[in-house]
Amino acid sequence: MxxxxxxxxxxxxxxDRIRAVLAERVSEVGRLSGTERLSATxxxxxxxxxxxxxxxxxxxxxxxxxxxxxxxxxxxxADLVRAYQQALFPELQRGGEDHTIATxxxxxxxxxxxxxxx
Amino acid sequence: MPQARKVALxxxxxRGLGAELVSGFLDRQYGVATLSxxxxxxxxxxxxxxxxxxxxxxxxxxRDHEALRAFVKEAGERLGRIDVLVNNAGIAMEGVxxxxxxxxxxxxxxxxxxxxxxxxxxxxxxxLRQGSGCIVNVSSVHAIRGHAGVAVYSATKxxxxxLTRSLARxxxxxxxxxxxxxxxxxxxxxxxxxxxxxxxxxxxRTPLGRLARxxxxxxxxxxxTSDQASFITGHTLVVDGGxxx
Lengths: 118, 245
What we know:
The structure holds two protein chains of two kinds. Chain A is mainly α.
């Protein structure tokens, strides 16, 4: 990907990769909501997840699990999406539990705009 | 730049068994990527003869994990894919454990084991995406039989055999095979310091009555990476002239 993806694009890419793995087993794969458990709900094995991570590294150019996040903390589709969003938007990692994605994105955009003005 | 030619990555390809494997894979029409700590005459000649065609070399210290990962990435991009990884790089570490320096122990583990793990991790990611691949770890008969004076070396090589079995189970469902080759003593720089009398003693204890030739060890590795071994995974193939039987 030549330009940095947006948060929504990251979510869409991660969902697509998971759906591609599921499509190897079932003929019809529905939309993902994000709340699905990777193992318990979707039946993904550790190796399936490794495959998804390898594909995402090739597509997004980052591997959040090399240093940033432990793969064992990833339980749901949303956890996986969040790991990539945090890897590509480090601003999302700062702050406490009440630090929402929306405020982090706003802060990042302000910073970028400020940099542009310089 | 995707291409049909298979690609083998051989660690420690500048001399000895590694150089033999590099030549063997090139003869078998593979693209070859190899890394080593030093640029030997063999590497210089290969670079000159190949002019970069289907051959890639970089100077990499096996203890530098980031450099190892970068090498795999570079090799994958340059040659298009990685079908085979041979974890060949290793250092001999002799001496009884009670008097061995800690830094020598750590170095042996880093070069013989950790580097192999890092390379296997990086290459297996490419192999997962390709849906196929083959990894061969170069172990040793010291992983199978105990010998005084090589405890650390034995530990690293036995660990490679453990890695082989578990990784074969992990990656098998994605058609990636993982095996070990455990050579006995063979003519190489690693035995060049050995006294002639010691070599003769080993030969006498070997049912086939001699040390292995380097190509005999390389052939076992080529077999395991070939389609002829398509249903073999998680195996340690002992190539020792019968010394451990």
